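Notes to self, MFS transporter:
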Amino acid sequence: MRSFSFVFYMTMALVVSFFPLYFSAKGYSKLQIGAIYSIGPFIGIAANLFWGYASDKLQTIRKVLIVMLLGQLTTTIVLTQIDAIAWLYVAMVAFNFFHTPINGLNDSLTLLLIRRTGKSYASFRVWGSLGFAFSSLVFGFVLQAVGAENTILFTIGTVSLSLSLAFFLKDRAGSGAGPVRFSGFFDIVRQPRLLLFLALIFTMSFAHRANDGFLALTLKEMGASDTVIGWAWTASSLSEIPMFFWLSRNGHKFKELPLLTIASFFYAIRFFLVSVVTDPIWIIPLQTMHSVTFGIFLVTALRYIQQLIPDRFRATGQAIYNIVWSCLAGLASGIVGGWVFDGWGAPAMYRVAAVSALLACAGFLLTSLLLRSREG
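result:
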């Protein structure tokens, strides 16, 4: 499971960090590359639901992952044969249909595994961070030497390795209760506690996704070199690792809502500070605040949603969570953040992100206090 996470996040790093360079090397314009990347969140909404439902209905995650990785490998190979922009859009729709939900299913399988073994989610997720950081650094140096046009070949290699490892994953244990009836699931997703939690996750993720989408552009406008931009991303991924190790040993000692309150508060501080600095080199240390923002947020939010959704609906529940924090928050931050960035500049956009995180902080704090008063 840890090896699979390591290699899958190597692929993630290639897709996030180096696919734009590959498309640029192929001669596509910035506008065309932007359109290619807008496909992911749209397709992710339907793809997450489809594959999550299929996994719960069939009561297997491993087999569904194998099918998805085969589809991802096929579409990656097809990308090497495409030059026409229209066919590229079609191929990227297919690629994202198979690629985007893998992260959610990987998390679902990890959550079911830790339920059986008593281990922590963070002790597994840290290997994803290591894979992402390793891939960013190693492939960065290699592609600089051999050319960004070879990105797809390395992606074929990492996807093939993920597919090989998937055959050795231990699948979810069957419920033994017959076929899954999804009428019960709809009762679960309508419960106010879950809806409030997803609304707060969306508010916090809006801030997180705004930084994901506009950090490189912000740094470019500040006059940063490609090296500084690369180190900014590497700093954030490496900073997660000690936090995941700490949470794997100590996270269970703290309740989830207070931890999410802390993560939101530091998101607000982090993005406000980004809005006021003028030297791009200061962005690198600010990116290390990723540890106390995203590091806490990711592990703790998954712990909390594990309590709200039964294991028999694990993959579908995880799909809905991923749609909210990744797809919907990504679309909203792209539209609103782009509008604010265009009209008032990067500092204003980061202040909007800081306000969004502060609202999430207040929401998590009030929810925590309300639940504590009811329990008391």
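- The chain has a mean pLDDT of 84.
- The chain has two domains: 1-169, 182-376.
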